Recover the amino acids of this structure.
């Protein structure tokens, strides 16, 4: 038996989409990172349509986009954990997340799985999560939003 | 990097991404639509000396805390008991002595009545504590008697209560620190000459502790309070055992009987009243918890009320216990050759002279007394902040410092208390007559307020509560009169100070109200765009980059732009005009010849002339005086430049229809 429980991760990249699940992801990562002083990177990717150049001035001007990362940073601060916010523009969110995690030599990538109430309620797995699961060079955690009580 | 966007190649050829820089993120955070929250970096001073000062403060007082961290600064019951009760509990260290000092005039027979007097005061304590417990529950926003009287009687009574409280808090600091120094001197008589120095040095340390913030203050102060309470209870238990079971303690020594026999005036009602008035100082500090309810952890009111009950019980036991031991062991105060406080003699009797337990007890007592001042350091700035929020004190008292403490209030309290200690030579007995008067005025007003509260609210059980407060009010009113008369003439100083403070607060309130009325904008108005004409006047010293920049700025805000050049050399003026018209066409240059070599006054006179020349049937225009300023690179450069601009600004401040605009020019532009 090892003397100490190994830290959950050394450097985690959190995929932040601006959904309510973001706060859950940040809290979870901050709580696990704090004891081992692990690094936490919050990444928000703005998907750029093919009709626009990739470096179009979109994300930088949007207050709403900035707020996604600022809110995450505020939650991490409350938990006394530093979160490095990263804002990206890309054609594909999944590829950008995987590339960012690879470049930063992250050993964990955390993505959120939101619950959609519309059409009877379901988890919107989309195409980003399957891409990340298939291509990420590190461990991937999918944090599922709890199903609201009235839907269960 | 283009416009803050940096392209990055991904693992696959098609997977490019662009990293977008976030220049705001170092200083601000978007916290809502259109709402930015400043981070600590944004609050950091920009100048070098400012940063050095900020770093020094952070080193001495700790890192700045954000307002949202305040909830973490709330006090648990255990810490709050130590912080808010140290004043009340510590008064047991000198209240017995004050009773015996008053009774000794009546001889040994009178001294023996010390216990009865202390029991009477303890009954008063129970009534006051029950009353204040009700205030905690009814007024959880804190402020104690000030809040109660404001709500129930309005401004006049509340300001009297606030003034009495402010005086009480200052006196608490002065009396406690002086008494603590006396305890040290009692244990180590060689330090007798350094009494004032010890008190002021300790006060400085307590001030620094409080400027660090309340949670740290709790950690610093909790341990000594509990050590004193523990060792005092142990001392009482041993003493009671020795007296009741061991049959020790035969009352006063024949030497004291002899000493007092010549001067004894006999036991009179007046003497007992004086002793009661002197011992009533034991109740000081009872109100502190009601003032500081918001500092408690939620549920604030319930926790404060519970803490108050525990505090009153502890104080009652300690006060009666110490008096019981003093009377039974025949102890009276000793002033010569070296001061020996009553409590130090009790400790000597129980723990043995010059033993480790004796010195430890004296140390705990001294520390507790120093820390009793801390009660006021929590309550005084809070009360000042509430008064400032209500417009009765300067607004800066409501501002929290880097560590969430009300720094200005803390500094004012420390300064006034230190002055009192120095002026009165750190003698507790001289300070005490000023002490209890304000406290009992305050008790009376707050309980009268509670009577009106119950009559208005009529919540369940209101009759019983009203009866408690009414009984308390009558009792404390009588004691207030007794204390004032018995401690006269020094006590009259408080009666003078209270109206002075009330007048000061009314004056400040009138100033703020007048300013608010002057600046008020009607709520139903839709503000239209500017309608008044504007003109720009630019005082110039020639043609240079700073002047050109100022002229160009002036052109952006008005069509009527003119430059003014003041000179005592007409030829020089004409040379400038030739160049000006060539290089800055469209901007008229007015040359003011000044044979008396003045610069500022001719410009002001020129503006007056411009105003007089304006058609009287038209609304006066706004004159914008644009001042070209050269920004010095180094601090010592500043003395070389912009002196005329500075004088001109001073001359124009407050001038009607005039706006001054500085246009700084930096060398690297």
């Amino acid at each position: 038996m090892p003397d100490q429980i190994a830290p959950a991760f050394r450097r985690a990249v959190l995929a932040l989409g601006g959904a309510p699940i973001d706060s859950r992801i940040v809290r979870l990562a901050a709580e696990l990172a704090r004891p081992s002083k692990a690094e936490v990177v919050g990444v928000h990717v703005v998907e750029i349509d093919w009709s626009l150049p990739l470096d179009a001035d979109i994300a930088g001007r949007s207050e709403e986009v900035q707020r996604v990362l600022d809110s995450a940073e505020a939650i991490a601060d409350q938990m006394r954990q530093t979160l490095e916010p990263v804002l990206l523009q890309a054609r594909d969110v999944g590829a950008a997340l995987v590339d960012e995690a690879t470049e930063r030599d992250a050993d964990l990538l955390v993505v959120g799985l939101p619950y959609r109430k519309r059409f009877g309620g379901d988890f919107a797995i989309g195409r980003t999560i399957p891409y990340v699961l298939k291509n990420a060079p590190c461990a991937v955690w999918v944090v599922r939003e709890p199903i609201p009580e009235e839907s269960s | 990097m283009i416009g803050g966007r940096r392209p990055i190649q991904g693992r696959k050829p098609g997977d490019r991404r662009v990293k977008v820089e976030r220049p705001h993120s170092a200083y601000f955070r978007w916290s809502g639509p259109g709402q930015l929250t400043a981070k600590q970096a944004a609050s950091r001073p920009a100048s070098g000396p400012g940063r050095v000062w900020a770093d020094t403060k952070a080193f001495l007082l700790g890192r700045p805390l954000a307002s949202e961290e305040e909830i973490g600064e709330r006090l648990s019951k255990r810490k709050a008991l130590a912080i808010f009760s140290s004043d009340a509990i510590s008064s047991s260290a000198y209240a017995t002595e004050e009773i015996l000092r008053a009774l000794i005039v009546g001889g040994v027979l009178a001294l023996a009545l010390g216990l009865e007097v202390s029991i009477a005061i303890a009954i008063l304590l129970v009534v006051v504590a029950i009353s204040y417990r009700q205030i905690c529950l009814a007024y959880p926003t804190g402020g104690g008697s000030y809040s109660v009287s404001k709500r129930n009687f309005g401004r006049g009574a509340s300001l009297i209560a606030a003034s009495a409280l402010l005086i009480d808090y200052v006196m608490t600091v002065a009396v406690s620190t002086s008494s603590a120094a006396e305890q040290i001197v009692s244990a180590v008589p060689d330090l007798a000459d350094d009494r004032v120095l010890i008190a002021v040095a300790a006060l400085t340390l307590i001030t620094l502790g409080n400027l660090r913030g309340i949670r740290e203050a709790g950690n610093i102060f909790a341990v000594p309070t509990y050590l004193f309470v523990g060792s005092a209870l142990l001392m009482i238990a041993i003493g009671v055992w020795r007296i009741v079971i061991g049959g020790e303690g035969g009352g006063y020594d024949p030497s004291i009987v002899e000493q007092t026999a010549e001067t004894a005036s006999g036991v009179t009602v007046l003497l007992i009243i004086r002793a009661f008035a002197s011992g009533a100082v034991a109740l000081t500090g009872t109100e502190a918890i009601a003032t500081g309810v918001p500092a408690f952890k939620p549920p604030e009111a319930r926790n404060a009320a519970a803490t108050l009950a525990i505090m009153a019980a502890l104080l009652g036991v300690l006060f009666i216990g110490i008096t019981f031991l003093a009377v039974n062991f025949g102890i009276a105060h000793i002033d010569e050759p070296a001061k020996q406080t009553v409590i130090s003699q009790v400790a000597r009797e129980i723990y043995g002279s010059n033993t480790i337990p004796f010195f430890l007890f004296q140390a705990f007592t001294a520390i507790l007394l120093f820390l009793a001042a801390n009660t006021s350091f929590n309550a005084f700035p809070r009360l000042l902040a509430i008064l400032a929020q209500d417009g009765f004190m300067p607004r800066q008292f409501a501002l929290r410092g880097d560590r969430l403490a009300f720094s200005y209030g803390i500094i004012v309290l420390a300064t006034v208390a230190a002055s009192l200690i120095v002026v009165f030579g750190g003698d507790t007995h001289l300070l005490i007559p000023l002490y209890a008067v304000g406290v009992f005025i305050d008790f009376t007003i707050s309980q009268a307020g509670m009577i009106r509260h119950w009559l208005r609210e009529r919540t369940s059980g209101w009759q019983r509560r009203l009866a408690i407060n009414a009984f308390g009010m009558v009792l404390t009113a009588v004691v207030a009169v007794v204390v004032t008369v018995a401690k006269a003439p020094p006590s009259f100083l408080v009666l003078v100070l209270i109206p002075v403070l009330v007048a000061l607060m009314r004056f400040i309130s009138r100033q703020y109200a007048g300013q608010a009325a002057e600046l008020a904008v009607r709520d139903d108005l839709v503000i239209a765009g500017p309608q008044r004409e504007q003109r720009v006047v630019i005082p110039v010293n020639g043609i240079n980059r700073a002047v050109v920049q100022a002229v160009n700025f002036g052109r952006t805000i008005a069509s009527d732009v003119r430059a003014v050049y003041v000179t005592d050399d007409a030829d020089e003026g004409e040379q400038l005009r030739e160049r000006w018209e060539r290089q800055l066409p469209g901007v008229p240059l007015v040359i003011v010849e000044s044979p008396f070599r003045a610069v500022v006054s001719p410009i002001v006179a020129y503006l007056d002339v411009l105003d007089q020349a304006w058609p009287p049937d038209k609304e006066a225009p706004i004159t914008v005086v644009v001042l070209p300023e050269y920004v010095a690179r180094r601090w010592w450069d500043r003395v070389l430049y912009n002196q005329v601009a500075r004088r001109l600004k001073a001359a124009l401040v407050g001038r009607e229809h005039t706006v001054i605009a500085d246009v700084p020019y930096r060398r690297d532009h």
Remarks:
- The radius of gyration of chain A is 16 Å.
- Chain A has a mean pLDDT of 87.
- The longest strand of chain A covers residues 39-47.
